[in-house]
Amino acid sequence: MKKHLAPILELKKNYLEGDTASPQDAAYGFWSLKKLIAINYLIPQFGMLARTGGFEHCYYLDLLAGSGIVNLKAGVSVPGSAVVALAATTSEPHFERYYFVENDQTKANLLRERLDRVNRSLQRKYEVRSGDCNAILPEILDRIYALEPEHSCFLALFDPEGYLETAWATIEILLGRGKGDLVFNFTEGVARNVAKARSDDSYVPSLQRYFGAPENEWLQYDGYDELIDYFGSKLQRVRQIERTTFRIDVKENNRPLYGLLIATGSGGYGNIVRDLKKRLDPISVRDLESTYDQLVGRSKPITSY
Question: N or C: which terminal CB in the chain sees fewer CB atoms within 10 Å?
Fold first, then answer.
């Protein structure tokens, strides 16, 4: 695990050391490191497989990008998913452009400043857009597929905190428009709110938007495991385009926090995701914190274990 976490900490040292913390920076805990490791692992392989598949134009989309820094606990922070993605090693054909969308204007401004700093030595092309990703995505896709759509592909990240930020219709537009793969964060909070919807109708409209289905369809599923599998099954066939979906869970004390659903139409990329799942599934939140402490030169007392 050290070799997968070390590059992320190196990014902070190289680009964000001394960065002034902001109240806008998310506080997610050490469990968020699994997601960052996954992004850093998946990106380098994408260009190589795109080349063998005949794709000449590759794009990266982070549709809920945040501020560029994630707080693990008081005084401890790491680069966020957008920074990890922009700085990750890529293979030819490299991503022609990275699109980062953040609804909060203050967060978007922070992200732009931090990515500018990271990009001084990388010189990659990227845009930070402020606004609702559900409204902005169709415009981005129009630009991606304006030239040689049959040779264009994408790798996209949807990382909602819950169920209010995204709509199934947006995912349908993304996955139904062309060739590309999706990493989607399904949070345990979705299951808790589905449970609330059984007795409180006020939750139903937003959940219908999230699942893209009437309440009688998703209310038949009970708990995190059933609901994430249901959502994952929806990703497998969108507008007649078929993909394979993989699930990587993140748990704390055996309680699910979120699951990464990775949908791909490539058998080769599926093998890469399968390998990633094999590596990440056994890793606990405590393992992540312990490895982090070792890498930054901090030891923990034996009573912590």
Answer: C
How far is 260 from 277, CA to CA, in rounded Å?
A: 10
Distance CA 163, CA 171 (A): 13
Give the C-alpha separation, 183 to 39, whole Å: 9
Q: What letter represents residue 119's amino acid?
A: N
Domains and CATH numbers, the chain: 2-304 (3.40.50.150)
Task: Provide the β-strand partners of residue 170.
Answer: none
Cβ neighbours for 275, distance < 8 A, ≥ 6 positions apart: none
Q: Is the dihedral of CA 266, 226, 70, 134 positive or negative?
A: positive
SS3 286: helix
Q: What would the pLDDT profile of 91-118 be if each residue is shown by its tens digit? A: 777 899 999 999 999 999 999 999 999 9
302: confidence class by pLDDT, cuts 50, 70, 90: very low
- The residues, ordered by sequence, that sit 6+ positions from 265 with a Cβ below 8 Å of its Cβ are 179, 180, 181, 241, 242, 243, 244
For residue 185, is it left (φ>0), alpha (ψ between -120 and 50) or beta? beta
Write phi, then psi, for 255 (nearest 5 degrees): -100, 125
